[in-house]
Design goal:
By secondary structure, the chain is an alpha+beta fold. The protein has 2 domains: about 5-115, 434 Repressor (Amino-terminal Domain) (Orthogonal Bundle); about 120-235, Umud Fragment, subunit A. The protein has 8 helices and 9 strands. It is elongated and about 75 Å long.
Length: about 240
């Protein structure tokens, strides 16, 4: 199946709907719908969302994942074998416990099934205000070797690190690390907010903090006086 076909198949089977029922409310043929679910027909995101909405799923679920987020990120069949069956079973149990109609279920059940493979990672600015989020895969219970709830993106507030290929507005994935790592790009606390700096270990328990905008600049301070928040492991830039 394709990932969009997976999504449609998962919602249809979870709600115990037939091809005919979904096709009728969505204005497509049964054959067309079956080919979409089997991955034999290419379908646009907007059309997949229309079919899902006609089955009762909302634009944004309780978990704050939009249909665009999921459609662009998740391949249910390959990313998490068996998740369709688990989610469908969970959905059937919950529907039996509820008095309202299956069509009113908000779609959060299958997102619960994905919670072990996807994580909503916040994006913070220099004063640690959340300005957005990204969905990242969780592997063996971790993201980049750290607990999923501890990682976050930091949005570069200026071009101080342009020489290191980080421009204003770029997002850098941060994993928690409170000790200095020589030669690493790290997020530090400063009187002016959180800042990115390339760090280099110096003699006498000191550290060099490097920036590179128009020219290379550095400052040296005591390691004991430097507050390390985390280490940058990934750069994401908008084109």
């Amino acid at each position: 199946m394709s990932r969009l076909g997976d999504l449609i198949h998962l919602e249809r089977t979870r709600r115990n709907l037939t091809f005919r029922q979904v096709a009728r409310v969505s204005g497509v043929s049964e054959k067309y719908l079956q080919e979409v679910e089997e991955g034999k027909r290419i379908i646009a995101d907007v059309q997949a969302q229309r079919i899902l909405k006609n089955m009762g799923i909302k634009e944004t679920t309780q978990a704050e994942f939009s249909l665009d987020d999921i459609a662009a990120t998740v391949d249910l069949q390959s990313a998490v074998p068996g998740v369709v069956q688990r989610a469908a079973a969970t959905g059937k149990k919950r529907e039996n416990d509820r008095d309202d109609a299956p069509g009113k279920v908000d779609g959060s059940i299958w997102l619960d099934a994905l919670s072990n493979v996807l994580r909503r990672v916040p994006i913070y600015n220099a004063v640690m205000q959340e300005v957005g989020h990204r969905l990242l895969p969780v592997e063996n219970g971790k993201i980049e070797g750290a607990k999923p709830e501890k990682v976050f993106y930091f949005m570069a507030p200026d071009n101080a690190m342009r020489g290191f290929r980080i421009h204003r507005g770029d997002k850098v994935l941060i994993v928690p690390q409170t000790h200095m790592q020589d030669g690493a790009l790290m997020l530090l606390d400063s009187p002016f907010g959180k800042v990115l700096r390339m760090v280099k270990e110096m003699p006498r328990f000191q550290v060099m903090l490097q920036t590179y905008n128009e020219q290379f600049e550095s400052e040296i301070q005591n390691i004991a006086e430097t507050v390390f928040i985390g280490r940058a492991v990934r750069l994401e830039a908008d084109l």
